Amino acid sequence: MPSKTSTGSFSPGTRRNLEDWVRAQRPEGIDPETASKRERAFAAAFTGTLFGIHIQTLVDRDSVDFDEALQLVATAFGRNFRNNWEDAQCADPARPGEDELAGP
Asked: How far apart are CA 61 and CA 1, in angstroms?
């Protein structure tokens, strides 16, 4: 259970470290500029969600199950993690697509 003094652990450095970790998971063939924006957004959304759960436990400790909330977040983000890059807008314009490699 978080304490009132532990909110300092949600620093910009925490978000940047998560962003770096997400970037390290990036599949090949993804446009780096578009992917970087998405990775930054993913890290912000994840960190913000954790911070929100943390605040909820401080506001209403008896009604919020911190561990259950974390498990739900981990499951939801885990199931959707790869979707971060699964969009045609993320395709690297410098790399030929499957259609172009197949030929006529």
From this structure: 9
Distance CA 38, CA 23 (A): 9
* pLDDT tier, 68 (very low <50, low <70, confident <90, very high otherwise): very high
Q: Give 9-18 pLDDT, tens digit per residue.
A: 556 788 889 8
d(CA 20, CA 36): 10
Tokens linked to 90 = 């993320």
Cα–Cα distance list, 75 to 11, 25, 69 (Å): 23, 17, 10
Give the three-class secondary structure for 98.
Answer: helix
Q: E-assigned strands of 9-93?
A: none
